[in-house]
Amino acid sequence: MNDTTGYVNLLYSQCSVDLESSEPAWFGSQGPGESPVEYGVEPTIKERRKWSPREDKILISVWLNTSKDAVVSNDQKAQNFWKRILDYYNASPLLVGTLPRELRQCKQRWARINEQVSKFVGCYDVALREQRSGQNDDDVMKAALDNFCDAYGYKFNLEHGWRELRNDQKWCSTYVSKDGGKDKRKHVVDVDREDEVREPEARPMGVKAAKAAGKRKKNDTEEEMSQLQAILEMKDKLQKQKILDRLLAKRDPLSEMESSLKLKLMAEMFSSNSQGRSHGVMKVVVPHVSQVTGYIEMSSSSSYEFEERLDEVFDEIFEDTFNNIVEAQSIPQRTRAYVERNREGGHDRLWNDYFSEDCTFTPHLFRRRFRMNKELFLRIVHGLSEWFPFFQQRRDATGRLGLSPLQKCTAAIRMLAYGSAADTVDEYLRLGESTALSCLHNFTDGIIQLFGEEYLRVPTPEDLQRLLDIGEKRGFPGMVGSIDCMHWEWKNCPTAWKGQYARTLNDINVLDRSPVFDDILEGRAPRLRYVVNGHMYKLAYYLTDGIYPKWSTFIQSITLPQSPKQELFAKVQEAARKDVERAFGVLQARFGIVKNPVRTLDKEKIGKIMRACIILHNMIVENERDEYIGYDI
């Protein structure tokens, strides 16, 4: 500090002096506006004051209210804007008895709050997108804090500021991240789903197919045909030129028709000359022909013998080109060889193993491999063969019987039960891969059309009353079931669609797309009456975990129970809600295609496979319900 002052005073001492001026000249080391320097006295250093959470909240509130001013808002100079913020902050009644803050301190503190909160918003959004089933808000907050610490190397200690700013519309629309990009969070827009007409989305073209389509060229046959067409056009032009030469060489007066023909030919000749051809000389070049290596010239003085020779040359060229095209065309080979699989033997083997009177395998093994009893399977086969032509056994053109309904339905059930590839049933059932896939998709379509209305219906009054009785016996009167979500990986998902299905469909997003609560929203929910803790209720409810929203129709557990009553409620609620988890486990254990990543390419077929598995599961439960240990109701 002393060195700097001495340097400035040295500059003062080196300035030019006006001797005629009335102002006194300063030749010392002390400037004209400086007070004497007291050496040996240390300058006073102000004590640094920390910001408390209450002061942060007051500063945030002042900034938000000043920004929302309807008259001036942010459209003013920064100095005036922050001066108003400083006046409002120091005038707060919550800060009575404290030292007032300076302008620089408020600006620095707000910049720190804005920067750290903006960074934490991104970390919280990442944790929210990765929220799994069973996690509550505390778990998401903990994951967000961990993400912030891992990304920036220090802990986030402005949670109070984030809670003040996170839901403020003015701040969310104006804050800027560190990279300079504005907030990209999407806002929810209400859409009338009934009026929205969505066309079925086609599968996009792959990367390799798109590149091949852009670089596709003509094949050899197309090139030969274009050469042949060029020869015919050239011969036609030479014929017209010969006619024009004869008309020009004629000495007698031309008739009206000949005059019009001459003018027409001359006009065509001039138009061809304007396209780059030389006048009086025509050139023909044909590759892959050994007779013609250069060009053929023709002038107006051509003789009759030369014309005949020219016609012969063109005929030879035309014949050779045509022969090359015919020889280049080969008979297309079959894409796959025919395999005699002896499908009759496959049917006989299947019948003797499972369906004859003295079958090889016991009913227990049939239930294990077909996932259902033999009576239920035969009921499905009979219904499909009666209503769907695909499952009817017919004869081909040679009079030979095709695949039996038992073979087709068994192939579909094996693929659903074990989740195996299509060609794994070839060795036992004797049907190819493409036929097995066709059996699978026709089987799912038939199950949905034939049994969907009965086994995938809205609960009837009898079903609803049975569910209410079970819930009341378990300690939850008015409960009709539990709500949860199950994920199914799509292995062959197109690259263009991965953003729609990769780690974005959590329980909340699936709930928004689900039609489960449409009846409740439209006022068609079943009316009932039950009493809990002396209060009368009229709507049923479901048990859920912590990820679902706080709706009146959702009853969630207590995250951190404190009293014995809360601990008992959390224990009973979580035990009752595990029914839906067990249902998903049974569905995945029964049908391996649902447990493993799906390999189907069509999105619509994937949905039909899942619906068919749920319908079959309900049919199996109904068929085997008497064997279960039920409730005494």
From TrEMBL:
Pfam families for this protein: Plant_tran
Report the PROSITE patterns cross-referenced here.
Answer: MYB_LIKE
Compositionally biased intervals (Basic and acidic residues): 191-202
List the residue ranges of the region (Disordered). Answer: 191-221
In this chain the Myb-like domain maps to 48-114
InterPro entries linked: Harbinger_derived_prot (IPR006912), SANT/Myb (IPR001005)
Q: Which PANTHER family match?
A: OS07G0546750 PROTEIN (PTHR47150:SF5), OS12G0169200 PROTEIN (PTHR47150)
Write the protein's name: Myb-like domain-containing protein
